[in-house]
Amino acid sequence: MLELGKMQELTVVRKVEFGAYLGEEANSKQTVLLPVKQIPEGTQIGDKIEVFLYKDSKDRLISTVTRPALQLGEIAVLRVAQTGKYGAFMEWGLEKDLFLPFKEQTRKVQPGESFPVALYIDKSERLCATMKIYHYLRTDSPYQKDERVSGHLYEISRQFGAFVAVDNCYSALIPPNEMYGDLKVGDWIEARISKVHEDGKLDLSLREKAYIQMKQDAQRLLDMIDAQGGALDFTDKASPELIREKTQMSKNEFKRAVGNLLKAGNIEITQDQIRRI
Predict the structure, then answer these.
(1) Ordered structural domains, the chain, with CATH
(2) Apex 14 CA angle, 9 and 19, nearest 5
(3) What is the pTM of this model?
């Protein structure tokens, strides 16, 4: 069976002026063309050649000896070559760029950007890319809790959080309460594993363990106070929303940092300000 989107070893059934036709066996009736410029020198009828099957610009099945960046069901980081009326086109090592439909984008992409995508076959039997890679990711990572990992952020959900492809192959999530800063689809994330679920999926935190993070937050808060001329115009009694907006900390994290600075004698708290001493 000729398999679209996969590398497979096929037999040269016959040769013509413009190429060679390949099949599963020497007498196969179902064949695919390998263009003449792709044929290895010295190839004879009956020889076996490893090829990748895709469709040309006229939607005809064709083969190539070039191995693309990914095969059916796999994930790879590809670069956007150009955008068009119905989607984008991504470089993947073949002459014909890979189509990324608008409906398979988790955000609008621009030429020159790179994202992890998976390869699938659409309803029209064409090979396409998708940025919705959740179901293609593995859950058998070798990592343990508190280890540091990295990967691409590929989708953001207000309900569930930010989805990350650790090492571009393992399933991970930054829960909403761990989302700090201006996170965007396509960002390269470095994080700490806060939990390994029974099903193998990972929860990530952009922050260190509490006792380490408290010292870092305290120093960052002190730097912030200095940058504001020696005082912040809000205290730990401010709303959680305001504190997160101003400091990228939760209210509890902010209070721990303030407590650390008070204990060290670095600050004082007035009715509506935190001042440097």
Answers:
(1) 7-64 (2.40.50.140), 75-134 (2.40.50.140), 138-205 (2.40.50.140), 210-276 (1.10.10.10)
(2) 80
(3) 0.71
